[in-house]
Amino acid sequence: MSKDSTFTKNELVALYVFFWIAGIAALAYLATLPLSSDTQILISGCLLFALFICYQFSRHIKKCEGSSILRLVIFLLAALLAFRYLYWRGTQTLPFNFGVISIIAGCLLFLVECFYFLNSTLGYFISIKPKVRQAFALPTDPALLPHIDIYIPTFDESPELVGPTLIAATQMRYPRDKLHVYLLDDGGTPQKLNNPNQDNAAAQERSYKLKAIAEQFGATYLTRALNEDAKAGNLNNALQYTSGELLVILDCDHVPAEDFVEQTVGFFLADPKLFLLQTPHNFVNADPVERNLSTYETSPGENELFYGVMQPGMDAWGSTFFCGSAAVLRRSVIDEIGGIASETITEDAETTLNALALGYTTAYFNKPLVSGLQPETFSGFLAQRVRWSQGMLQIFLLKNPWAMHGLTLAQRILFTNFSLFWGFSVSRMLLLLVPPLYLIFFIQLLDAPVTDVLIFGVPSLLGSMIIAQYLFGRVRWPFVSQIYEVIQSFYVTRGIFQVVLNPRKPTFQVTPKGEVLQEDFISEFAKPFYIILFFNVAAIGAGIYRLLTDPSNHSALYLVGFWAAFDFFLLLCALGITFEKRQRRSEPRSLHDEPVILHIEPDIALTGSTFDASASGVKIAINYPTIHRALLKPNTAVVLEFPERSMRLACEIQSVVMDDEQRASIGISYNLQSTVEERTAIAIAFGSSEQLMKNKNQHHNHRSILGSFVFLFRLAVLHGFKHLTFLAVGKLRDLFYSAKKIQQH
């Protein structure tokens, strides 16, 4: 093919958009064709069969040019089923003959379905051809490498949490004279240290410790006079005192791997227009959903959907956005756009939008290069998600991607999608109300026979499940998204309405990390779930009563009753999540696998391997002869050797679990005596990106739709009833003590 006949990148994007629009138009036409019920069943069955065959075939072929065509076929088949259902819903089922309340409720339900349909369609659009990038080798001549500034912003996090990130940042593999690490302490400002409403002594001690850690490990400590514009202001202040050509921004709980810079800098040398390279936020602790439901060890993490599927898809459309940490940015572009944006509380996505509008590019490198922390408590989780929802909606209301010059059509669509995505909270809250409205209050929500609902609705539902398995099966099991939607619905909805009423009102709130919980308790945010669960149970009871007393319309009662039962399981899971379990570990701990030798006495050495590691110790699996069993006991001083590192560390045994007669699992704490040993401990726990990739892949596995439903049922029964039992016991205990006090008086 001649040079003149090749397509430019923009032309290819335009071609993709054209085919999408043409495909949607064709689907819309096919969806409107009038068909008899028998024909509809036949066509839906054929489409589902073809979709299932394509899905099964896709699991057994390697990525190639043909896989992109197969992906498009799968999308079109699922979209046709969904289009057909939605057209039928909008033209033949709205309850215009049942009074004002039914009309309002029925139209709201239809709008909710439209929202989910639009959200799914945009998800297909994002995922049509995800981009996979490989790292670029760095030049061997150090003179060709750029100077890099590492920014680690912190506010009120403890020195114990910040320390590992700071240490790891100073020992990344890169020429020492071109790597500059800055600890940006917004908790050490005169404004904060002299605040009469807080513990000044604790703030000053924290500031002193952070300065000492920075000095010890060769970093520069920076602060400022006033805490203005939150994290964005902190970063912009640092720009005045630094001059690196590239910026690496790390949250203070995101410990970088040794090769973070090696893996990322080459992208900027290869593309002079590149503004941002984002890498995944790789978490080494469970979020409150995973922790309170005990799913962290077995299921994919919640963030895997975004970082494993959505970001690679957005990268293909040139729409990767900055996620606040684990990213590299070009300094000259930041200067050109006037610094890190601060008009909204999601400064990261807003800054990306400003750079894209000037014609700069972004990229996503899907390799875990940091070990980070998620919020441990349900309250911290909600604070984070409400901030994200408010910030993204602020971007849409205050920045308006459709009014900004310089953005491509795809970028406008995708930024709009991620702004409006959070509408799921309102939609999910309304869906939870549907069974009570029908079963208790007799409100008619649609005007159609149940047979038609099944004929049109079931194929669409099955099609959406199949394509969800195809796109997200390794990183998101069926029904997990619904659990996350339910637990966020009430609070994110409230946050959204606050932004709609006053887009500039929300302020940046730091997400709490490294929290320690000394005892089990029920979160204060559980109250809305009690209310909706009460109505849900009442709806199930009303449905059973109507089945027994009303011989008509049993089919509709069975259908809505099944819906209510499904919501019952989701709400029990929500209660399980709001039952906070004791959490005493406050530092990140990563899975680890490295040979070790445990020296118990000068002449006794046992071989084994590490199981997990943190900045303060490791867990090891040791092979031992029975004769040495008595020597393996807590508080015993030992020496742990890492042969591959030629390093020995003085340690102490903390715990011993005898797995069998020849093997033990031992918890080891370090007695670190020098800066070199502290650096080694960090390198062991978090230094290897290959280990991080291995750990991440261990969580990637499929689960069938039926298996996921059984999984949902088990979680609901086990953890939901634990919550209710704990609540009942607590209430009975309170009544007992109250009665006892009355007797005493």
Describe the protein in words.
- This protein has 745 residues and is of the alpha+beta class.
- Helices cover 53% and strands 13% of the residues.
- A seven-stranded mixed β-sheet has the order 3-2-1-4-7-6-8, with helices on both faces. Strands 13-14-15-18-17-16 form a six-stranded antiparallel beta barrel. It has a two-stranded antiparallel ribbon with strand order 5-9.
Helices and strands in order, then pairings?
Blueprint: H1 9-31, H2 37-58, H3 65-92, H4 100-126, E1 148-154, H5 159-170, E2 179-185, H6 190-193, H7 200-216, E3 220-222, H8 230-239, E4 246-249, E5 255-256, H9 260-270, E6 274-278, H10 288-292, H11 304-316, E7 327-330, H12 331-336, H13 347-357, E8 361-364, E9 370-371, H14 378-399, H15 409-420, H16 424-439, H17 450-472, H18 480-501, E10 521-522, H19 527-549, H20 554-578, E11 579-580, E12 590-591, E13 595-601, E14 604-613, E15 617-623, E16 637-642, E17 647-660, E18 663-670, H21 675-686, H22 689-698, H23 705-744
Parallel strand pairs: 1-2, 1-4, 2-3, 6-8
Antiparallel strand pairs: 4-7, 5-9, 6-7, 10-11, 12-14, 13-14, 13-16, 14-15, 15-18, 16-17, 17-18
Helix pairs in contact: 1-3, 2-3, 2-17, 3-4, 3-17, 4-16, 5-7, 14-15, 14-18, 16-18, 16-19, 16-20, 18-20, 19-20, 20-23
